[in-house]
Amino acid sequence: MLGNAMLFLIIAIVAGVLGFSGIAGVASTIAQVLFAIFLILFLVSLFTGRRR
């Protein structure tokens, strides 16, 4: 999931540099949402992970 967020971030940066503001905006929004989901799942797994 973090890989997908990074992929959309790179797409947003490249689209922004090339002047495609609509595509850059959508890609950056997707990247932000995916990163937020990844962060929430990571924190949940830290607190509810198996204890040895």
TrEMBL record:
Keywords: Cell membrane, Membrane, Transmembrane, Transmembrane helix
GO CC annotation terms, alphabetical: plasma membrane
Keyword hit for Transmembrane: yes
Pfam families on file: DUF1328 (PF07043)
Ranges annotated as spanning the membrane: 7-24, 30-49
Family annotation (InterPro entries): DUF1328 (IPR009760)
Highest taxon, organism lineage: Bacteria
Keyword Protease (UniProt): no
NCBIfam families reported in the protein's UniProt record: PRK13682.1-4 (NF010229)
Family in the record: Belongs to the UPF0391 family.
HAMAP family cross-referenced by the UniProt entry: UPF0391 (MF_01361)
Protein name as annotated: UPF0391 membrane protein CPA45_21685
Natural source organism: Vreelandella nigrificans
